[in-house]
Amino acid sequence: MGLRGNLSTIKGVKAALRALPKSMAHNVAQKGAPALTTLTRAAFYGNRNVYGDRRPLGVDGHPLSLVQSGRTSRTLEYKASGTVIRVVLGTDYARYLIGKYGILPNGAMPSSYEQALGEILSKESVDL
Fold first, then answer.
1. Model's pTM, two decimal places?
2. Which of 29, 38, 60, 105 is buried most, with the most CB atoms less than 10 Å from its CB?
3. pLDDT digits over 24-60, tens only?
4. Nearest of 3, 125, 10 to residue 78 by alpha carbon
5. How far apart are the C-alpha atoms of 14 and 3, rounded to whole Å?
């Protein structure tokens, strides 16, 4: 059994997870949240957005790090709540960094996220 539907969008992945049996969707969410957190933080610290594009240069010509206190990067994580994967934004201003610098997906699902969730799902399907 695999994910069916439009997996290139966040809404499509949510709908596909809802279509799975509850126990499988729960396991995928529990294992997927830490995997997505790792991918998101790796992109953040690698001065890239979640789609793999480099961040723009700052006024001094160096890549923007987006780290002043480190609070946003430390609290940026995904949590599983039942069969749903939710993102935790630990700062009030993190939501502005999503649209401007792509610290989280905005509509389209990054291919690295699709691949990670697909691998987790294939392992879950084999375990049945």
1. 0.86
2. 29
3. 889 989 999 999 999 999 999 999 999 999 988 888 8
4. 10
5. 10
